[in-house]
Amino acid sequence: MSRKKDRLPGKIISAVFFVLVFAFITLLIYTKLLPVKYLIIVCGVLILLVMIVYLLVRKIRHKIPFVIGSVLMLLVVVVMGLGSLYIYKTVSTIDNITGVNTEVAKIGVYVLNDDDAQSINEASGYTFGILTALDRESTDETVKQLNAELPSPIQTQEYTTLTELADAVLRGQTGAIILNQAYLDVVDEMDGYANFSQMVREISTRHVETVIERTEPQRVVDNSGNTNSSDMVFTVYISGIDTRGAMTAKSRSDVNIIATINTKTKQVLLVSTPRDYFVPLSISNGVPDKLTHAGIYGINVCMDTLGMLYEQDINYYFRLNFGGFVNIIDALGGITINSDYDFNSGNVTGYHFNLGENYVNGEQALVFARERYAFQEGDRQRGKNQMAVIEGVINKALSPDLLKNYTSVLSGIEGSFETNVPYDIIASLVRDQLNEGGNWNVVSYSVDGSGDTQKPYSMSQAAYVMVPDYSTVDKAKELMTQVRNGEVISQQ
Predict the structure, then answer these.
(1) How far apart are CA 394 and CA 440, in angstroms?
(2) Which of the listed residues 53, 70, 97 is the one where a domain comes to its end?
(3) Is residue 321 part of a domain?
(4) pLDDT for the residue numbered 346
(5) Structure confidence by residue, pLDDT tens digits, 271-288
């Protein structure tokens, strides 16, 4: 055998192996998830393996070393292939849930159930009832879209309140109404309109898209005046919904939590605000409303309203669907939650929760997060329990147990979360955790208030609201400032 033929197979194998290793290293660098020291170690090991394989396969006539080198290369390629699949799934999942900078208001056109019209074209000659002021921008955009599609402009009649609008279609004063889908639940809550959403039928839907604004996080400055790009303090608005449609659809928010995060001190402060908190919305010109109604007008209004209440800039939002949350907790293998009470839930299953630690699956965690009737504090305690569930997920996700069901967790995340936190920030947090390790200090706090009956901005009649206890709001602001300043706080 000539020297050239003796070495050609080894050169081809080594070249292919080198290209695959180079591609894998490039992929690792592209993800931005691995700390530099680990990148160096991985690169060093892979380059060493390339050299070893080359030395083993460089002469085909040395059959035993050639076979050993070929098998070694195949094993490494298989490992890199599996690693690439995990990396691709991770990056793809993060890409899918991050950078969501728009949301959609679903505006429906409704007629009575027994109306002859089955489509918007068949109702083109109707008079359409609309709201005078509430969510008027979305209504006007919908009317504009309808006018562009129909042969002639539609005729509209304005009504000041939701009840007036509902009465208009129920009494035949108008053939159809144009209304944000999120308002249906609000109308159903009002006296005399409990089944309104069942009495009307949607014949058309229009989507009105808005941009979700965000502000840059604060960089931590050390004692010498320098800033570390990976050390940040930022706030995230966590909105919990039980949506019947897409995650990007505007809807009432049942969970309203502000997370203040200091990556340098590894502290997370969760401040829960009850859904019925009676506060001015950023778009209501000082008129108070239930906080949950802010979600009807969009994430921007939720963040701005809470920013006004706590005098804080809220950088990002994080929306979760508690129904889909069950899948993630089950994929994690369950979580540990801390209960303030020993109680039985009021749901049909009748779960029992002990005072202190409880290890729960996804369904049990969801029941725990929703329960309020078992407590004298009602919605106040529900907010605390929701934070306990979030804390349990954080603790489990930061533990080695995450690796056992990693792909299942990733699959569950895609249908349950969305956020406008940039990929680079999430990658930075992952790198820092891998690089430094250590536990995070998660502390929760709930603001309080007193029950009352008032007329909210988004409703046409008085309803139950919670009037804020501003001493607890001030305490929350104080805790947020402490976390921002790097002070260590405790649950006590």
Answers:
(1) 9
(2) 97
(3) yes
(4) 73
(5) 999 999 999 999 999 999
| Distance in Å from the first CA to the final CA of the chain | 80
Question: Has residue 491 been placed in a domain?
Answer: no
Digit-coded pLDDT (tens) for 400-414: 777 677 777 777 777
Alpha carbon dihedral 136, 137, 141, 143, in 10-degree steps, equals: 10
Q: Give the separation between CA 300 and CA 253, rounded to whole angstroms.
A: 12
Q: How large is the average pLDDT for residues 226-243?
A: 76
Q: Which structure tokens are listed for 345? A: 């839930």
The SS3 of residue 329 is helix
Task: Confirm if 59 and 7 have CB atoms less than 8 A apart.
Answer: yes
Residues 144 and 241 placed together within one structural domain of the fold: no
Query: 110 pLDDT exceeds 60?
Result: yes
Q: What is the CATH number of the domain that holds 471?
A: 3.40.630.190
pLDDT at 103 over 90: no
> Do 40 and 64 reside in the same domain of the chain?
yes
Q: Which domain holds residue 191?
A: 102-211
Report the distance separating Cα 389 and Cα 373, nearest Å. Answer: 18
Q: Would you state the pLDDT for residue 255? A: 87
